[in-house]
Design goal:
Number of strands: 11
Radius of gyration: 20 Å
Strand order of the largest sheet: 1-2-3-4-5
Order of helices and strands: HHEEEEEEEEEEE
Structural class: alpha+beta
Helix content: 10-25%
Largest sheet: 5 strands, antiparallel
Number of helices: 2
């Protein structure tokens, strides 16, 4: 049986997306075909979740960006911290109504404060982590919002 190119691309995309999402594939009918309503529902859920994943910005090392469609902003995270702008703006360098920039420069209290140095950045789907050794700063981008947290070793 020869598959039409469009069918092959769709099938490969759904199975690739399934592996990324860590979910089971929709159940097949007794003839081996995937039930169209189940396939469509599954594909929609996978695509909706992937809309919040961070992607490496082209031409930049360790610079990750993701939209938040539910809240109308786009975030960009690097070793220096996070920047957030309205989602409908084309560039982080453009003039915007607002722009939020946050950098964690240290932690502690008084004389026992620790100054942080450049972080190692890693991303996995909707989560980005800035590893500073003793302190790990992380961001999770989901439909409910962008969450920021810190884990102290």
């Amino acid at each position: 049986m020869k598959l039409r190119p469009a069918t092959w691309i769709s099938t490969a995309f759904v199975f690739g997306a399934t592996a990324l999402a860590g979910q089971e594939t929709p159940t097949a009918t007794q003839h081996g075909a995937i039930d169209p309503p189940a396939w469509s529902s599954h594909a929609s859920r996978v695509l909706a979740r992937q809309e919040y994943h961070f992607a490496l910005v082209r031409g930049a090392d360790d610079l990750w960006s993701a939209p938040s469609r539910a809240h109308g902003f786009r975030s960009r995270i690097s070793a220096l911290g996070i920047e957030v702008i309205p989602r409908n703006v084309d560039s982080f360098d453009a003039d915007t109504e607002w722009k939020l920039s946050i950098t964690t420069s240290g932690f502690g209290r008084g004389a026992i404060s620790t100054k942080l140095v450049r972080a190692a950045v890693s991303a996995n789907d909707e989560r980005v982590e800035l590893d500073q050794g003793v302190l790990s700063e992380w961001f999770v981008n989901e439909p409910r919002g962008l969450e920021q947290g810190w884990t102290i070793a």
